[in-house]
Design goal:
Elements: H1 9-12, H2 15-28, H3 32-42, H4 50-58, H5 62-80, E1 83-93, H6 119-132, E2 136-141, H7 150-162, E3 164-165, E4 168-169, E5 172-176, H8 182-190, E6 196-197, H9 205-211, H10 220-224, H11 226-232, E7 238-241, H12 249-267, E8 273-275, H13 296-309, E9 314-317, H14 323-330, E10 336-338, H15 369-378, E11 382-384, H16 388-391, H17 396-405, H18 409-426, H19 430-444, H20 450-464
Parallel strand pairs: 1-2, 1-10, 1-11, 2-5, 6-7, 7-8, 8-9, 9-10
Antiparallel strand pairs: 3-4
Length: 472
């Protein structure tokens, strides 16, 4: 039944193909000759199949694993340089009609504080985020056709884009809401969203239906086929992800890569981003109740192999993970991270309330955005607040062609430096600004094209003078 070009979920994520892949990986995990061939293919920077990548995931040879890590780090540099894009989640509502066993928003949770932001409260949240320095948001909402209809989401998007506070502006809104119709995806596209993000949670159908016993999310096929409907609705950029810890991680890894292969085969464009969340503690959720948990070393290996297998994709890691874990996996391929996140509804504008239990999960990295920005620079990365590709129409196949050819670097590197300069001038602490100015001065010299380098230098001076929103 396996057919990556099929539009039916159970054919492009075929259970038999995944089980065969896992058997093949087990049979070849010590096959050094085959693993060497797979690594040689990966060095061509064109990616790996789900079966090839699964062999690498099963491999336990420490020397070969270290080679995978080194290759992942180099591929990340080749495609994305030393830039790390910054964003923040914005929770609009935790009303939800689903019965998901791993999420505190499930319908049967009667003691969680249910909240839905008014448009004035959305405005207050956005101003608080702008005052930190954020330019890119990912909006989140539970699935509830009465409390969170598409019209509410669209109103919130319009409100977010309309707010300009001091030098602040949200320039890109990514959307993480439940699977919906082609018509609704078209409305989201017309509202000017960036990436549509939807986590599969698990690709194992039997487990999926058990973990989603009630509500519209119970429909495995409708959920799994959502990205095809999104693209039919005109959304160029979509983001995949599974919730590691729910099911066998090797099964999920193969399914995730098969989904990426499907999008490439059908639409000619793979996932714009892949996220790697792990199950975390929340109001009435104990991650120890799930038997698919993975340790930090396995998690790092998964991140490295996603980078090797899908070299063009953006990889996202959130504040679900600690500073130590994030530091470990950033070098292995992560290109986007959140900073100063709140996973409660109204968590940015309101003072933190110890009795507030509206959060979707506990945040592990509780540092301020300024602390995260400074930490990244100390590690040698450029924190980027850039949204230029989306606003210049470099999305979908246009972005992918530039990314795969390496030409995107000519835009991204100077854009990252200019948006970092904006952050330093408008929001940074003196210590962070000093470090950032030194970094920008050094990195400007690394722009390869002289014309672009000179323009970027001129614009950095103009930002100091008060002009904003330059972009290549």
């Amino acid at each position: 039944m396996y057919d990556p070009k099929s539009l039916k979920a159970e054919e492009f994520i075929d259970n038999g193909e995944i089980l065969d892949t896992l058997r093949y990986a087990d049979e070849n995990k010590d096959n050094t000759e085959l693993i060497e061939k797979i690594l040689a293919k990966a060095e061509e920077r064109k990616g790996l199949t789900h079966r090839e990548a699964s062999v690498l995931l099963a491999c336990e040879d420490e020397k070969l694993i270290n080679r995978m890590y080194d290759l992942a780090e180099q591929i990340k540099k080749d495609f994305y340089g030393n830039r790390i894009v910054m964003f923040a989640p914005l929770y609009l509502s935790n009303y939800c009609v689903n019965g998901c066993l791993y999420c505190p928003y499930h319908l049967k949770n009667t003691h969680i504080s249910r909240k839905k932001l008014t448009q004035q409260e959305v405005k207050n949240e956005v101003i608080a985020l702008q005052d930190m320095g954020h330019k890119r948001l990912a909006i989140e909402a539970g699935e509830d056709p009465v409390n969170n209809p598409i019209e509410y989401i669209l109103d919130c998007i319009n409100t977010i884009y309309s707010i300009k506070h001091k030098n602040g502006a949200i320039r890109r809104v990514n959307v993480n809401i439940a699977a919906t119709t082609v018509e609704n995806y078209r409305k989201l596209h017309e509202a000017g969203i960036g990436t549509y993000i939807l986590f599969q949670e698990t690709y194992h159908k039997e487990s999926y239906e058990r973990l989603h016993p009630t509500g519209p999310k119970h429909n495995y096929a409708y959920h799994t086929e959502a990205m095809d409907r999104a693209m039919e609705g005109g959304i160029d950029d979509v983001g995949l992800g599974v919730l590691f810890g729910l099911e066998m991680y090797r099964y999920e890894f193969a399914g995730l890569l098969m989904h990426a292969e499907h999008l490439e085969a059908v639409h000619g464009v793979g996932p714009h981003t892949i996220s790697v969340p792990r199950v975390k503690r929340a109001d009435d959720i104990d991650p120890d109740e799930f038997d698919g948990g993975i340790d930090d070393d396995t998690f790092a290996k998964i991140c490295a192999l996603i980078r090797i297998s899908v070299p063009y994709t953006g990889m996202i890691i959130s504040t679900r993970e600690s500073k130590a874990v994030r530091e470990k996996v950033i070098r292995l391929g992560v290109s986007q991270i959140s900073g100063a996140s709140r996973t409660s509804v109204g968590g940015y504008a309101e003072e933190e309330d110890e009795d507030d239990n509206s959060a979707q999960f506990d945040v592990s990295d509780k540092r301020t955005l300024d602390e995260v920005v400074r930490w990244l620079m100390e590690l040698g990365y450029i924190p980027s607040f850039c949204t230029a590709c989306y606003r210049e129409g470099r999305t979908g196949d246009r972005f992918m062609s530039l990314c795969k050819s390496g030409q995107i670097q000519n835009c991204c590197h100077p854009n990252a430096l200019m948006t970092l300069k904006e952050y330093l001038v408008d929001y940074a602490s003196p210590e962070t600004r000093k470090l950032g100015e030194e970094l920008i001065e050094k990195e400007l010299e690394n722009i390869p094209k002289e014309k672009v380098r000179n323009i970027a230098k001129e614009r950095v001076v103009k930002i100091e003078e008060g002009i904003r929103d330059f972009r290549f």
